[in-house]
Amino acid sequence: MIDGRLLIAGQALQTETRFSAIDAASGEPFGVDFSVSTPEHVDAACAAARDAAPVFARDAAARADLLEAIGAEILALGDGLIETAMRETGLPRARLEGERMRTVNQLRLFAAELHGFGWQDEVFEPADLARVPPRPSLRRINRAVGPVAVFGASNFPLAFSVAGGDTAAALAAGCPVVVKGHSAHPGTGEYVARAVTKAVADSGFPTGVFSFLPGNNRALGAALVGHPAIKAVGFTGSRAGGLALIAQAQARPEPIPVYAEMSSINPVLLLPAAMAARGGALARAYAASLAMGAGQFCTNPGLLLAVDGPDLDAFLATAAAALDTAAPQVMLSPGICRAYHHGVSALDGREGVATILRQNAPEDRCGAAIFAVDAARFIADPALREEVFGVSGMVVRCASPDDFSAVLASLEGQLTASFHGDEADWPLAQALLPIMADKAGRVIANEWPTGVEVSRAMVHGGPFPATSDTRTTSVGTLAMARFLRPVCFQNMPFAID
Amino acid sequence: MIDGRLLIAGQALQTETRFSAIDAASGEPFGVDFSVSTPEHVDAACAAARDAAPVFARDAAARADLLEAIGAEILALGDGLIETAMRETGLPRARLEGERMRTVNQLRLFAAELHGFGWQDEVFEPADLARVPPRPSLRRINRAVGPVAVFGASNFPLAFSVAGGDTAAALAAGCPVVVKGHSAHPGTGEYVARAVTKAVADSGFPTGVFSFLPGNNRALGAALVGHPAIKAVGFTGSRAGGLALIAQAQARPEPIPVYAEMSSINPVLLLPAAMAARGGALARAYAASLAMGAGQFCTNPGLLLAVDGPDLDAFLATAAAALDTAAPQVMLSPGICRAYHHGVSALDGREGVATILRQNAPEDRCGAAIFAVDAARFIADPALREEVFGVSGMVVRCASPDDFSAVLASLEGQLTASFHGDEADWPLAQALLPIMADKAGRVIANEWPTGVEVSRAMVHGGPFPATSDTRTTSVGTLAMARFLRPVCFQNMPFAID
């Protein structure tokens, strides 16, 4: 079903330079070799996207059909997709099957959105010739920005990759998409790219609507972001990676936006009454949220705030015990696992940092870790606020609830901020709500941040460095707005549209 | 009424370093000396803005009242404002009185918008506990980004300055504003700043909602853009100035958006049937639009495209005669006038460029100029596409209508693109509409671009370098969206809001 080719506007091409997929569990290469795309391929894909853009932008109903068809083609890929993804990412079957359904439902949600008119945000103001000076008719409507480059994430090989949220949003908005395939799941990427390519071919739209460029070098991404036909970039990944793309996009003769989702430690406040009433249940739920998917979620609860004392000690003991019963997990790639061990080692023994748990784990597996500090130390040491991607939790022992806002104020922007509180905690939650909303794109009561609903109301975004543009989201229908721009038509004859 | 003080959160302060207003017509200093704000003043203003932000963001109805009150206070300033503005800018009384009304109506429009709910873009999705997994309640709503820095324009000392569009939009969105006063109209600025300060004091909002920092050096603007309390910047001015602010804002530890409106030559297509039927009337209207306000409009029709031949020759003769009958005009500042003479001199005699009109004018006045080139030369020479701020028009003689799209394709992003056409021209207009909409934020039929309606449907924006963010506008109610960000509240108890 897959043979390591890149896909440019419906054409499958092979290159001489190749790279291998890596089995996440063993660290060994396996399967077919994958073609490495070159700058010439970027040129061809972007030129095809530019040529396809005007036709693609015009027919929203046909785009809705295309999105539905992509979903159907992904489901039709069958178990080969799941097995390849399991091997490339180390993620378990149930998770990947769930992620596949999430990906398909995401495509369907955008299709449904296209059957409404809200995304166009159309405003018509009739002429008023009696006014002095006469007022012209004005019609404002959203319009596709043009071809979009998508850089998928390693941690969601389906839902945030080739046909993931960025691609679905861009296609829905009427923008052709050129995907830079992630080198950590090239086979998964090719499977899905073939599904999209087939759906585009069947749609009657120009084939340039979609291209898939796998590769394992940075020059490929740079060529893509630098191409004049590309008008916006969607990226999910590391802070360093996102910042490099943003700098390059800003330095173009025509700067373009990079919608980068980068780094978040997702603070969770455990309020006193809830801790007293149900600390044990919270501890078990925390452990489950922290360890889910080897902690490889952008909404992983990396930071806890609670008032120091016996309730917190009991909470930590329960959480540590729950985490320690689970076996160390396979991570997405050897590089991510190395970075995790490096991050945990840097915290273990750092001044003022107590190690609550550091699970014994081989160097190719992710063992759970919990660290604790007091509020003053946490605020004084920026290194304690850096994301450690994996099952690593930082706990701030606050002297009183008065410390909560100072700790929150020390944070950079976040995807989420959560609190767990019972009725007696609500005045405190109310007082903290403004700073939580200042710091995050989503504020959560009495739930853990690791579930992200795909819906109209979702905001998966937040101030820098959670994302590069706090006015947007990368999950939910509002994500289309990143790839639309308003245009006003003044005094237009009815015959012209 | 004015005494050269800066205004920080309701406090009028004097500094030792001072600068003078310059009489635009004579180039001589006049009136009181104005205080130069320092980085310490920036600190004080931004801290006050940060402290005022939460309260200010909460009460939209009171903000609407504030916007109305600012308008009333501006009207109450009386003729002192107009006379000062006339002297500082060289703009005539009727224009400034009209601009004052436009400014007041703009404030009223945002006030009216706040009485509706559209600007909040609220979406509520109820919980579904029966679903597996349960679906939480989600409420998405727009929220103020925080304090905004505003850099006003020299060419609209009222409508795009201290209480102009950016300030009105930011205040409407719930963001405190710190204005960097423009050194070309410090007295006008102080007048309006006093009106805003009085309205804020009467409103009961914290005084930190508004500060006015005059100055005549770049360090002031840099300190403002670099201040951590500032969350967004509104700027209208030169391309170099805008790019410098953007680079600085991107290099902050927390990068912030700069909404810069910079450079546009506003192509106008004269289609063949309209030229044949009413070339003379079009020529007179063109001359009026080009010369209005000494051409100092961001929507000035700096570029004409027409098919070469007798109709175009007659058009140019009529336009040149109309322009040449008017006296050379005072410009906004000696620096702007110098730049205009430099720009016109660089075009006069340039290879392939014919000078249709170069009005004889003293070096402190703006004489009208029209230049013509063929399409190939225009496309080959990027210098011919640069904005010359003033009464200077470039005309591209196209061999046939087939040249129109190639010429349009050679352009950078524009605020506007217009066509003049009669019924026989409509198929051509229809064919050119997509590229016009790709290149500009507003597409205009059979009108000139120099009128910009302040309304809900207006887009005063466009692709780079017309603006730095093609998804926005700096005129009309949609301008609020620049200073809002969506936040999602998940599973929130009813008691907490």
TrEMBL record, chains A, B:
UniProt KW Oxidoreductase keyword: yes
Gene3D superfamilies recorded: Aldehyde Dehydrogenase, Chain A, domain 1, Aldehyde Dehydrogenase, Chain A, domain 2
GO molecular function: aldehyde dehydrogenase (NADP+) activity
Pfam families reported for this sequence: Aldedh
Aldehyde dehydrogenase domain segment(s): 17-325
Keyword Zinc applies: no
Name recorded for this polypeptide: NADP-dependent aldehyde dehydrogenase
CDD domains: ALDH_KGSADH
Enzyme Commission designation: 1.2.1.4
Keywords noted in UniProt: Oxidoreductase
Sequence intervals crossing the membrane: none
Enzymatic class: oxidoreductase
Organism in which the protein naturally occurs: Novosphingobium sediminicola
